[in-house]
């Protein structure tokens, strides 16, 4: 299979090209910009036939993608942090209108104070917009994620947009080997989009953006939730098919690493889970029975997989590179909530790590493992939320 | 009197669009808004005096709904199912053939 050494951003751009996107509307923002620059380069070189819409803001970028998608096109965009926040209104629009748009969000810390470094709070703040969210651990997952995202989003029973999320700089600007299947094999995996309705079918005119009175709105919300439930199945099917075709299996919404006999596991999302896997290997040599659970899909949330994991471990250390002020880490909050009405009650502790791109290393994970081991032996939490890096 | 051209699909719209709710609330039957009888919003009702009418079509042209159509002799007919009583027709009428009268229900 052809391999390229590319940054996470170029992996995203190649994936968009290989997915044969028809419309890209985007506005530059660090650290996302090199995605849309690369796509512009493909068009300028005649390598891709894409309608590129340069817009005056991210709000307009998503609006243009919504128009394109309603017209039946396969639409793509990319953004980060403040840009994603500016898009917020249109994110609801895309999911409410049931348009299978795919967007790459490069996780970047929200200002102020200004920061361009990795932090998941930008994407997690869009949790309730009706977008599916996939967190990539490495450049290969960025590439694979974009290809799978279109197939999941465009599934007839789903019709919801997908956000593929990668880490600022740790992935976006770091070069790694990415395996890119031949175009004809990708075309077989991802055939052209077959929209339910299009604005450009002039013999069957439609209206989008209708008003629903209190008599109907409720049912339209329920339909979105049914589509999310359906997406859980579709994600697993598509992930399995991807594995059969290209050798990398994504049928698990939570990727489990050495959890079979684990006493406790580290759970988290995105690039930091690569470091965690390295640490798990080292810690096992040092006598810790630990594993890693990488949450790939945050929306729809993998409830059943989490339950299956939680009932077999004594503890879960949830690593959140994000925070919901006035509460706790967002993944921790969700995971704890899922388990409340079940018989699985592992000790759960929330470690707030790596905000704004603070380095999170194997040594940090070793310290967390030591702390978790003590907690499990005592059977009692020292504290529920630990601001791990805090300068004291 | 001529039939309103805007009522044709009511039966189909009421049956299909209220029973079958499309993903994304797509309205796929053209003219489906006819099921919303916006005439119930009206406070002032246009009253038409045929003797003053010069058949200039201004009321017909300006009606934003449109709730005015023309009969066989090109006189305006007001469709009170959809007339919201905005009064634009009365304002535009050059011969004051239309007057707005408070409607008491």
Automatic annotation (TrEMBL), chain B:
Keyword Zinc: no
Keywords, ordered alphabetically: 4Fe-4S, Electron transport, Iron, Iron-sulfur, Metal-binding, Pyruvate, Repeat, Transport
Domain 4Fe-4S ferredoxin-type: 44-73, 74-103
One Pfam family recorded for the sequence: Fer4_21
Example GO molecular function: 4 iron, 4 sulfur cluster binding
Known cofactor(s): [4Fe-4S] cluster
Top-level taxon: Archaea
Subunit structure: Heterotetramer of one alpha, one beta, one delta and one gamma chain.
Official protein name in the record: Pyruvate synthase subunit PorD
């Amino acid at each position: 299979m052809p391999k390229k050494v590319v940054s996470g951003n170029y992996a995203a751009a190649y994936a968009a090209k290989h997915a044969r996107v028809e419309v890209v509307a985007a506005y530059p923002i660090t650290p996302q910009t090199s995605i849309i620059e690369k796509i512009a380069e493909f068009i300028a070189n005649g390598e891709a036939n894409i309608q590129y819409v340069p817009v005056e803001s991210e709000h307009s970028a998503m609006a243009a993608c919504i128009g394109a998608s309603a017209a039946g096109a396969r639409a793509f965009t990319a953004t980060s942090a403040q840009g994603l926040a500016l898009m917020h209104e249109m994110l609801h629009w895309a999911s409410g209108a049931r348009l299978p748009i795919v967007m790459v969000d490069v996780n970047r810390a929200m200002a102020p104070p200004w920061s361009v470094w990795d932090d998941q709070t930008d994407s997690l703040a869009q949790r309730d917009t009706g977008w599916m969210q996939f967190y990539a651990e490495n450049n290969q997952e960025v590439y694979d994620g974009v290809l799978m995202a279109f197939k999941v989003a465009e599934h007839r029973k789903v019709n919801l947009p997908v956000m593929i999320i990668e880490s600022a700089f740790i992935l976006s600007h770091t070069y790694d080997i990415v395996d890119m299947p031949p175009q004809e094999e990708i075309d077989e995996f991802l055939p052209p989009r077959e929209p339910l309705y299009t604005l450009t079918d002039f013999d069957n005119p439609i209206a989008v953006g209708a008003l629903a009175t209190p008599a109907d709105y409720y049912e339209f919300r329920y339909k979105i939730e049914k589509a999310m439930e359906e997406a859980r199945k579709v994600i697993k099917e598509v992930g399995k098919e991807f594995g059969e075709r290209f050798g990398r299996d994504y049928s698990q919404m939570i990727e489990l690493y050495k959890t079979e006999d684990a006493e406790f596991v580290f759970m988290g999302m995105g690039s930091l889970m690569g470091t965690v896997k390295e640490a798990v290997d080292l810690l096992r040599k040092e006598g810790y029975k630990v594993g890693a659970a990488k949450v790939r899909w945050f929306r729809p949330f993998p409830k059943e997989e989490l339950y299956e994991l939680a009932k077999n471990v004594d503890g879960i250390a949830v690593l959140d590179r994000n925070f919901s002020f006035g509460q706790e880490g967002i993944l921790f909050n969700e995971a704890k909530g899922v388990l409340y009405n079940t018989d699985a009650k592992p000790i759960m502790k929330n470690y707030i790590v790596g905000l704004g791109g603070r380095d999170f290393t194997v040594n940090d994970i070793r310290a967390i493992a030591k702390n978790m081991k003590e907690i499990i032996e005592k059977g009692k939490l020292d504290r529920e939320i630990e601001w791990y890096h805090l300068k004291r | 009197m001529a039939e309103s051209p805007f009522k044709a699909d009511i039966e189909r719209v009421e049956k299909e669009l209220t029973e079958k709710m499309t993903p994304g609330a797509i309205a796929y039957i053209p003219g489906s808004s006819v099921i919303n009888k916006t005439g119930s919003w009206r406070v002032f009702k246009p009253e038409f005096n045929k003797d003053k009418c010069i058949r200039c079509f201004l009321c017909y042209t300006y009606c934003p709904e449109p709730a005015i159509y023309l009969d066989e002799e090109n006189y305006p007919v007001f469709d009170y199912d959809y007339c919201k009583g905005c009064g634009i027709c009365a304002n535009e009428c050059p011969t004051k053939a239309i007057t707005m009268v408070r409607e008491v229900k």
